[in-house]
Specification:
single chain, 3 domains, mainly alpha, 14 helices, hpI Integrase, Chain A
Length: 389
């Protein structure tokens, strides 16, 4: 046997065994492990570890904690978008590290992951309040990804986050404007600096960051189209910066309805007048379409905040019948109109810049169901028309 068992205490034993050679120095690698139980159990543990070494799946002991590994994994994951990194970082520091961060990575067990879920549900939120199932699922995803890397690096023998039962996410109904609500909303916000931005959002279905990243060079008003080439993102770490769209299909050409073309023409005229008044002259070809007085980018958070304020003021009026919608819900409203028109899912997916039609179907499944029910009613009417004559 390439090892031995030595008593350390009344019911504890030290295992000493060879673990091959160091590939750099060529020296023998010796492992020391303390276990509890009977001598027979200690010998069985030694035998198991030697078999693992022979099978090439042995993981050497380490004192690395969950917190140390997850933080190192996040730091090394340079492919993450800045906004994703910031979101993951918050989940690491607020939901993972305070609860299971001190545990030894190799000693983390499936039952502890499930217990962690329960703790988050009860007291994982702000000031010890409950955490939503959706956020618990997001925190679990981060842990699972970090443990998957630990498994790939042979730090652990398996990913204990795999196969864990997750809390069911609450169903959140997507808010959309009905056909008769779109025009009153756009009329209510007329004159506000968000008005042309809102018209573009409803008329194209573009994401907020994509709209705020538009340059005049991307738009051909004569042909009635625009090209989505970039998105403006905002994080605490990097501030404002331009990035590629969310997926490769995010780079796309969108045809423009007349109302959007008219709004952009009027906006360009106002922008030119303002710049001339400030002594800045005509904006360059690559100037931002929606920007501050001197051409500076506008933070998406400012758009969202001022949108909420404008909508709240409008909804406070007695005659207002609009639901409380976010700026992003204008994108959903656009998608809803396309689905109701009968446009096929592939064309809708392309226009929205989704990674694939599968994403479109998953986000708007309930709307496609309603559309299909309408299609059934329409074909039924068509089938009956001739028979009733």
């Amino acid at each position: 046997m390439r090892g031995n068992v030595t008593r350390r205490g009344k019911s504890s034993w030290r295992l000493k065994f060879d673990n091959g050679t160091d590939p750099v120095t060529g020296k023998r690698l010796t492992e020391f492990v303390t276990v509890r139980g009977t001598k027979k159990e200690a010998e069985a543990e030694l035998s198991k570890r030697l078999n693992q070494i022979d099978g090439g799946n042995y993981v050497a002991n380490s004192k690395e904690t969950v917190a140390a590994h997850v933080r190192a994994w996040l730091d090394a994951n340079t492919d993450l978008a800045a906004t994703t990194r910031e979101r993951f970082g918050k989940l690491v520091e607020n939901q993972i590290v305070p609860h299971i961060g001190s545990l030894i990575l190799q000693q983390l067990r499936p039952a502890q992951v499930s217990a962690w879920h329960n703790t988050l549900r009860k007291e994982g939120g702000k000031v010890g309040g409950p955490l939503s199932p959706a956020t618990v699922r997001q925190a679990h995803r981060v842990l699972h990804l970090a443990l998957a890397r630990a498994f790939e690096d042979e730090k652990i023998s398996r990913n204990v986050a795999s196969g864990r039962k997750l809390p069911k996410a609450d169903h959140v109904e997507i808010q959309i404007l009905q056909q008769g609500q779109i025009a009153p909303l756009l009329e209510a916000i007329k004159g506000h600096w968000l008005s042309p931005i809102s018209i573009v959002a409803v008329g194209t279905g573009m994401r907020q960051g994509e709209i705020m990243g538009l340059q005049w060079a991307d738009i051909d008003l004569d042909k009635g189209s625009l090209r989505v080439e970039r998105s403006l993102e905002e994080t605490k770490a990097t501030g404002l910066r331009f990035k590629a769209p969310k997926s490769k299909n995010g780079i796309r050409t969108i045809s423009l309805p007349t109302s959007v073309i008219d709004a952009l023409k009027a906006h360009r005229k106002r922008q030119l007048e303002q710049r001339i008044a400030l002594g800045l002259g005509k904006p360059g070809k690559n100037a931002l379409v929606f920007c501050g007085p001197e051409g500076e980018a506008i933070a998406p958070s400012r758009v969202s905040g001022q949108w909420r304020d404008a909508i709240d003021r409008f909804r406070s009026k007695p005659e207002a019948t609009l639901p409380k919608i976010r700026f992003h819900d204008l994108r959903h409203t656009h998608a809803s109109a396309l689905i109701a028109s009968g446009l096929d899912v592939v064309a809708i997916s392309r226009r929205l810049g989704h990674a694939s039609p599968v994403v479109t179907l998953s986000v708007y499944a309930h709307l496609f169901k309603r559309s299909d029910e309408g299609a059934a009613a329409a074909i039924e009417a068509a089938m009956r028309t001739g028979a009733e004559q």
